Amino acid sequence: MSEKITKHLVVPVANEEDARETARILDTYEYGQVTVVHIIEKGEGVPDKLPLEQAEQRASNAFGAFRGFIPGIDTETAYSRDVVTAIIDVAADVNASAIAFRPRGGNRLVQFLSGDTALKLITDADRPVIALPEETKNE
């Protein structure tokens, strides 16, 4: 029996602006349940990028921005050094049918230096990964 690929999407967001743009684009498509995930990068022996309280506020702001377009979402905050693994783990935990994300720009050098998170997500995921376009289909 086949399952609808958009039955339950896990949608990672990095910050308030990213959440707003991702939700705006996703809302032009049909989808089922949506779980929005924000990964707080934790140090594991090295200093954290942001103080925990500030990082958790960033997650809360991102969720709020997403709800401005799609109110009925579930949210998850994960704490990990490895963003891609954390996204995949959340997708497994909530039994998502797919992961949908909006690739963030950057030139090839930036992508190389960052380890190209989008490529790692696409190649490491154990379920379908949907790359949303940068613009809505109605623009």
TrEMBL record:
Coiled-coil ranges per UniProt: none
Domain UspA: 7-132
Protein name: Universal stress protein
Taxonomic lineage of the native organism: Archaea, Methanobacteriati, Methanobacteriota, Stenosarchaea group, Halobacteria
